[in-house]
Amino acid sequence: xxFVFAGDTPPATKRSFVSRRIVIAYWLIPTDPARxxxxxxxxxxxxxxxxxxxxxxxxxxxGVDCTxxxxxxxxxxxxxxxxxxxxxxxxxxxxxxxxxLFVQFAVTTQLQRLNQSIRNAGQNSSHYQLNPHLSLLYxxxxxxxxxxxxxxxxxPFPEIxxxxxxxxxxxxPTQSRADVEAWRVVAEKALNT
Length: 193
Hints:
Layout: E1 2-6, H1 11-15, E2 21-30, H2 34-49, E3 58-64, H3 70-78, E4 84-94, E5 101-105, H4 109-121, E6 133-137, H5 143-152, E7 159-172, H6 177-181, E8 184-190
Parallel strand pairs: 1-4
Antiparallel strand pairs: 2-3, 2-7, 4-5, 4-7, 5-6, 7-8
């Protein structure tokens, strides 16, 4: 498994140019045993680094805040969509708050179809770029610490299966613990098995 070090521009530089807004993020949720494994890693890192805890997920899309129609969007997107299996590529890190430490996945046709299905169902023209990863830590830490953490994580699964979708109301971009703690799940839908 390879390692990725990206985006070592100081986060403060990025924040000054980014407008923030409320969005709906559409998360893929992994099945067990991967879900339990990732939740354990996230919880351990959150405790060690005084960082926020969160549910393991891969964002399939993020777009306009359509809380009133999100159930319909999830139903349409999940219709005919079976469980999604994603190949683990590597463990990476960056100076971006939401990608401090993450597991990178390969893009699949099925994931691209789901992303497009969510866009179509929500009549959403956001500029979200699909980049499948599962974050393990949200915290600003040194590049040395990120490198040490990247080398310390050994994902025991070559592929992860995802079996449900959640719609989460959140601020974008997420830049702090308070932002993470303000996330709210507004809908959930199982994918076909």
